[in-house]
Amino acid sequence: MTATDGFIAVTAGMNSTAAPLLLGEQQFARGINVSTRGGFLRTRPGFTALAWQLPQGKFQGCEKWSLDSGDRVVMVIAGQVVVVDVTTAAVTTVAGATLSATQPCYFCQAHKYMVIQDGEHQPVVLESLGGVYTVVSSHQVPVGTVMFYIHQRLHVATLSPDRTSFRSGDIMKPTSPASVLNFIEDTYWAEGGATATPAEQGFIYGMSTFRNAATGTGVGPFLVFSRSGITAYDLSIPRETWGSVNSSQVLFSGVGTRSPWAIVPVNDDLLFRATDGLRSVRYTRSWVGGGQGALHNVPSSVEVETWFQGDEAYLRLVSLAFADNWLLTTVSGQNNTYFRGLVAMDVMPAYGLAESSPPVYAGLWTGLRCCQLLSVDLNDAKHMLVVAEGPKVYRLDSMAVTDSGTAIESRVITRSFGFKSPYIAKHLLHVDLWLTNIAVDTQVSVYFRPSGYPRWFPLGVTRNVEAFPDGGAGYRRRLRFSLDNPGDLSDTSNQDLVVTGTEFQLAIEFTGNLMIERCLVSADELMEEPPDPEDVALEATPLSGSVFDDYSYAVEAL
Q1: pLDDT of res. 268
Q2: Residue 503's closest CA among 19, 79, 168?
Q3: Is residue 198 reached through a cis peptide bond, with omega within 30 degrees of 0 on the bond before it?
């Protein structure tokens, strides 16, 4: 009797935590360079190289600088401060800016100024005057690291007395914008000096604020992220009362962050890369209109935790960015220089008017040696930028079908197919794929393994599917993959044929660009002999089959 199983929609995304046999029909076990947007598995969006003529050297960080004339990207490369006009791609190296040529740099826009710190030297403050970028020669910004601008004040995590404190500058006066660079009030209001966290949580590594919070100012509390906790401050109150009013509150202890680039607002959430993965700090109302709220520090990355492991030494350099409803975070740090991949979360499923569902993980995106992620505004739309080693800059492009001409290599590992009879042995026959949206000529391969076996075997040969010659997206109905000589494939540990098992798992690889509309797996049910009542010692022999490398794909231009 022939049994069938398979998948169509994968709206629940990737889940590597549960055993493949226990995954739901709309889940898959692992995804490399794929997207699930729209419900079907498909090649991820491409990365388009931007024609920015950047100086070569060690990349030390970057940040968006929003001006009336459009966004700029401010970078530090080998100690040089470089400003790029996002609209025109004009690159300017700012004269007179002196920074460390080796240390990571920190950025903050305070009103119209861009402040840059390296944690060692006096900060560099930039101003744009008539399209010319100049260094502000006179200011009082102290030497520090992480910075944030809120309630018209610049706040700096200082080195003195130690990195567990921050200092707050003067309020910005609309008639005198340069007042935001003064720290005069810091010396006589509230006994002067720095503000320390109310509990021992380690060094300060990040700063942010809640969005859409129900406060009188319309701006939420100021959040300070330490190594092992988060503290909230109400800095909207008058400065002269800071010393007599308890304005701080420890939100969470035990989990914090190590990177200022790893905190990103996503609508009314605040997501950050913690020491144990991706977490979300949410402000929600317990009763509609009741004014009661609850804070939640929720782990949000168990489905993809396999790629967060081993990054402890690189947590200080990880980054997150959000654009086009994609949340990306860097993973797999290398040599204190770059990251080999990006974990992709699709937030779009949460925004349906008729029906919404939680965000889903698409899996791991590879190809670029990523240094930092950044979102910028261009033509009233947010765009995701990836600064790669070099440095080179790429833009995530939903319309691109290649990575700047390089064919994208994708792989999806499915759940285990039990054919609704997980206790009955089967003989795998063939796999049929319905492929659509074939944007470029694409090679497709299918691999299989019986559940529990650690290696993979090719199912038939690699097939070529072509895009339509008129430039339209191609379509292939029921492309079949089957074994010509199944007796050639056996489990070397016990000499059983690997095409025989109770469940089977598939790995589908495609180099090019397409969408998998459906997958049908067929197998014959078998009558098995009763097991041998005596234990038989199996000889330990090398396993046959292949293993996969998640990071095998790289853009050729690198």
Answers
A1: 73
A2: 19
A3: no
